[in-house]
Amino acid sequence: MPFLPETPRWLYSHGKEAEAVQVLARLMSCREDDPRVRMIKGEMKAALEIETIKEPFRWQNIFYDRTDLKNYRRLILCFLIQMMQQFTGINVIAFYVTIVLEVNVGFDRETASLVAGFIQIAFWAGTFPPMWLIDRYGRRPMLLCGSIALTTTMVVFTISIALDTPATSKLALAMLLCYEISFGMSWNSIPWLLAPEITPLHLRHIGSAIGPFSEWLWTFVIVLITPTAIRNAGWKFYILFCIMNMLCIPFIWICLPETNGKTLEEIDYVFANAEAKERIKSRFDNVVANANNGGSRRSSDSDKMTTLEVEKIV
């Protein structure tokens, strides 16, 4: 930690502009007067001016957000995505897998404990691929594919334990393994990334707190009801998670923007209403003009990169 610099945006928002430029230049391996550094500095200034406009708190904005940058909507998404993560059913399997294997699949206690270890290893193994896939394919595709896989495995698992035959018990076990791998590759890590990515700087601490609050709130609910539900409802309990996994698909498609490869300023633009988008576009046009006219450019490649980065926003 002592060797990690503060983020350029935080430094800039606290009046440490020179230090912010130094960190940017180090991160981009270029000089402090490079056109790309000047452009990002201008972007940060323009975005922070819009983000920090104070608006009075109104309860109705929680249900119908009329703010320029949809800050309430972003905070609600931080809550909802962690709620949806818990209602995939992961903690039923993670906390109560031996009970599930005994009561629903039909294993004895010793076998259930042994198999539970392999299921948790499958979960662990599934957490490795996102290290390479998240930035390559994006957050939304990973979550969508994960939700489709989780829905499929949960539906087949539920049908298998409902039929309750030796063959379907083996199929149910295979579905649990596939479920754990699928969750580890998608919903395990991505919700934790999205909360800080979609919230503006001055609300990031709130968004980062709302996410864990939601996660542990719904973990508590799921863990509390699961033993009684398994005992009394049996296989019907898992219909809840089949439905919730299905609902994750339209939730991701409709509500969650793609954040992969976008700057914080671009994410502000994604959430902004029409009027705010015009203001952001106008200010970023000025940033481009200042970056292009602020001094001699080091190379034509730098020019092209600067132009392309801004075109993604406007």
- What is the 3D shape? elongated
Structural class: mainly alpha
The helix content, as a percent range, equals: over 70%
Mean pLDDT: 83
Strand count: 0
CATH class (first level) name of the largest domain: Mainly Alpha
The CATH homology group name of the largest domain = MFS general substrate transporter like domains
End-to-end CA span: 36 Å
User: What oligomerization state is this entry in?
Assistant: single chain
How much β-strand is present in the residues? under 5%
- The count of helical stretches stands at 16
User: How many domains make up the 3D coordinates?
Assistant: 2
Low-confidence stretches: 295-314
> Per CATH, which architecture of the largest domain?
Up-down Bundle
Order of secondary-structure elements: HHHHHHHHHHHHHHHH
What is the alpha-carbon Rg in Å? 24 Å
List descriptors:
mainly alpha; disordered C terminus; 16 helices; 314 residues; Growth Hormone, Chain: A; 0% strand; 2 domains
